[in-house]
Design brief:
Length: 143
């Protein structure tokens, strides 16, 4: 998606923002991406985890995240004198117990191995969780 932005506005915002930081990038949508692309000047820092994408109902596209994940060079293999994008993989988790992480990784590993589109797997995951909650509510009300 390309958006047309007035050259004077583009120049103004490029000048105003020396850096652009995007948290929860996995929940960005194509319009947000187009706005950033219109004003960025190789000064964007994104943080995200595609496994945590929850905003499909507002057109979030985890595929944007995955595209960059596949294209960007890992920082350990990169030449920092060039202007290409780089990625840093944060693999330590200090907030969840190992059994929770193991379970989540098993669920998502199947999707990655089969290369199922991320949007589809997230939609199925939300449906699975909704079904489980509804079944539990029915069991509670039957008692």
């Amino acid at each position: 998606m390309r958006i047309k932005i007035l050259p004077r506005l583009q120049k103004r915002y490029r000048k105003e923002f020396s850096e652009i930081y995007i948290d929860e990038y996995q929940d960005s949508n194509y319009l947000q991406e187009a706005i950033v692309e219109a004003i960025e000047k190789n000064n964007v820092f994104m943080v995200g985890d595609v496994k945590q994408s929850i905003y499909g109902f507002r057109q979030a596209s985890p595929g944007l995240f995955m595209d960059k994940y596949k294209r960007f060079t890992h920082f350990e293999k990169a030449d920092f004198d060039d202007e290409t994008q780089k990625k840093v993989i944060l693999s330590k988790n200090f907030r969840s117990r190992s059994n929770v992480l193991s379970c989540a990784n098993v669920i998502f590993q199947k999707d990655y191995e089969r290369k199922i589109q991320v949007e589809l797997s997230m939609m199925m995951m939300r449906h699975f969780i909704s079904v489980r909650i509804l079944k539990r509510e029915k069991n509670i009300s039957a008692r």
